[in-house]
Specification:
By secondary structure, the chain is mostly helical. The protein contains five helices and three strands. Helix 2 runs parallel beside helix 3.
Length: about 140
Amino acid sequence: MTAETDLGALVSGCDAVIHLAAELAQPSDMHRVNVEATMALAREAAAQNVRCFVHASSMVVFGSPKQPVIDENSALIDPDLPIEAQYQAEPYLREYARTKALAELRLAKLALAMTTIVIRPAVVADRQKFLEALSWGASRKWL
């Protein structure tokens, strides 16, 4: 999304918006895309009387939980606390988790006059990422 994007025109006349866009590769862009753009789109959808806003988040918002089973009521990572203690992952993935959790928390606070649904897919990856996992060492596979 750029500053010139007319979100009103994008969602005008829609009954629902399914927001799947996210930045995963460039940590320097993650806050702008994963938080600010998500919030701008949700606000505009509400202003255009969209009835339902579906936001694709990620299961990484749970970080590295200490309990073996998590569900929709499990605590998210706290984006205001050091992420290293909450999520054992590569730095770019920690930032991704922080920004996705922050977007979820902000969406929840908006109390928009539309149904808001958050989905948290387990894995969204291309073929190369799946093949990469074949070369992981035993300790990484365990984690």
